Amino acid sequence: MKINDPVVDNLAGYCSNAGFGDLTITCYGVREMPERWLQIKGDPSIRAQLFQQQRVESLFDTEIDHVHEIVYALLVNKGVFHTKIHYSSSQLTCWFARDPFVYEKYIREEVLANGFVDRFPDTDHAGRKLSLNEHELSLIFAEFKRLRLSDETVYLRNAAVNLINGMINMSFSCDGTHYIDQKTFLSKLENFETG
After folding, report:
1. Is the Cβ–Cβ distance between 71 and 117 less than 8 Å?
2. What domain count does the chain have?
3. Domain assignment present for 22
4. Taking the CA atoms of the chain, what radius of gyration do you get in angstroms?
5. Does residue 14 fall inside a structural domain?
6. pTM for the structure as a whole
7. Domain carrying residue 169
């Protein structure tokens, strides 16, 4: 093969000699989340029919403390950095630090089965600094329980927690959605309204 050959049919590899000392490395997306509370009102037709509905007890409702223990263990010990609990449909969605671009979905009895948490290896969050500690997680889950079970008409449908950026996401039966930073959320415990 000559350098000026127009076609290379059997390229076997590529060799390069690069000096990394002059390479500039830029980190994108490494920042603190702003303290903010974003509330989005949903579908007006759902809001109009709100008082004609009532919460139907789900499997996750009947085992809510156990569900929260499972999610807590996944977040603290198993490398889950973001999770969404779908209370109404009894689903759990998890994003693991080992593969953050792929979420994993677990449903109903699978989540509550003996050994569910043990099937995941103990691991950390890939060296990332966490915005929430274990005590704050316990407070958040207690508030999720209150928001899910305290009212039969306006109630929490699903909720998400992100350990890295500290954001909490909640959707309610009135089709309202809240995105709220952990500092604001924790300051509103027991006073948070469900609308």
Report:
1. no
2. 1
3. no
4. 23
5. no
6. 0.77
7. 37-187
